[in-house]
User: What shape does this take?
Amino acid sequence: MSASPEEPKEIRLIVFSALLTALHEVMGRDGKNSVLRFAGLEKYINKDVPPSIDESISFETFKSLINSMDDLLGHGTDAILYESGRKFAIYLTPFGYSLKDVVERLSKWVGGTWTVIKDNDESIVRIVNNPICKSLAQRRTKPSCHVISGALAKIKEESTGAQYIVEEVSCESKGDPYCEFHIIKKGDVN
Assistant: This one.
């Protein structure tokens, strides 16, 4: 068995900014500030973090935020993390971009190797060396990339006009060799 690759050194600020904005939308100012305080990231409380594809934050800062969300929201609130992912997608990229375009951007901005395996009414996205999983402090027994699942559903919906559900069928956080997301058409958006 080979050693796992190193953690990324940094994450693009656009990703961090979009995640903070999504947390604010889903949990309100106080909820977002509680997550930041728990993460030891008080310097971001009540501060605007402008998105930038040129600037970055340390992976340790990103990791602290992800672990704080996981610790505070826990497994019982997968729906909150999923909805945060949907909001995250809104702030991350303009509408109308294809799934492939956004996945290419995320691979550059977040790290890991993101690949669209299949893209139609039933799409498949695979991530090898997923930074979200590298952020989690403990091993899981079920897939745990709810933020990514929510983001992929919203990205696909905005590029097609139909509703989608996402099922994460394998996850590095539970020991699988990669994270794989099946994006399945549900019906037309009203």
User: Anything to note?
Assistant: Residues 19 and 165 are 20 Å apart (CA to CA). The mean pLDDT is 83. The helical segments are 13-38, 59-73, 78-92, 99-110, 131-135, 146-160.
